[in-house]
Amino acid sequence: MSNPKRIAFQGEPGAFSHQAIKRWFPGAEAVAHPTFEEAFAAVRSGECDLGMIPVENSLAGRVADVHHLLPHSGLKIIGERFLPIEMNLMVNKGAKLSDIKVAFSHPMALMQCRNSLRALNILPEVFHDTAGSARALKDSGAMDRAAIAPEVAAELYGLEIIRPNLEDARHNTTRFLVLTGEQSVVDPAPEVPCVTTFVFRVRSIPAALYKALGGFATNSVNMTKLESYSENGSFSVTFFYADVEARPSDRALQLAMEELKFFATDVEILGVYPQDEFRRK
């Protein structure tokens, strides 16, 4: 993760992923891509050194596309970062809060600010992207409309923030994964607390998931995330995405994974990486 030159993200310039890159890799060029698939491809091809990809939000839940794309992607997770999400009400320079009738942004951003907007008597309007709403506001020149977007979008498009921290919940946080296309990734030093992320598919037998997870309980391996998803339109067999606070070289995790494989198939480790300090707060 040292000195990457180009980092891929999904979204428009000024998105929260862009802000995450700016915060943790200030010397790198943030490269925008319209879709997660294109961002993944840029990292896989070597066009970008790393990817900064959101995987879950404390209010909105998981980013579903990422769970489908990571397995068999050829990419490895080498880090995690937690970004507190701060929604900013921004306007074209010279506009006053009392003049604003409508604020537009991504539906998730509007949902996270609905009480604040109601208190300001501002109507919400759906737009496809947070950063895109800031760009569209700048292009329109409107003085009675506002956008809700990250701080970096205001800087990028020359807008003025008239109400920072517009979000209703102050604990709103997004977890990002740092991805690399390098296959010879060295595990963190032995003394560093780690997360191992992996996927698996349970066998189609009664109580398969219960039995598959038994080894994690009996070996005291802390599983912090377990999510199910279907693939290829099938509802008969389910895939699972999991995080555990351990590393594959730990004897406890070795035993748990051995037991898992009795009741699951297609087990794939997606990454072994240091726990972010935010996780331990």
From TrEMBL:
InterPro entries (alphabetical): ACT-like_dom_sf (IPR045865), ACT_dom (IPR002912), Chor_mutase/pphenate_deHydtase (IPR008242), Preph_deHydtase (IPR001086), Preph_deHydtase_CS (IPR018528)
Enzyme class, first EC level, given as a word: lyase
EC number(s) on file: 4.2.1.51
Residue ranges annotated for the ACT domain, each copy included: 197-274
GO molecular function terms noted in the UniProt entry: prephenate dehydratase activity
Pathway: Amino-acid biosynthesis; L-phenylalanine biosynthesis; phenylpyruvate from prephenate: step 1/1
Protein name: prephenate dehydratase
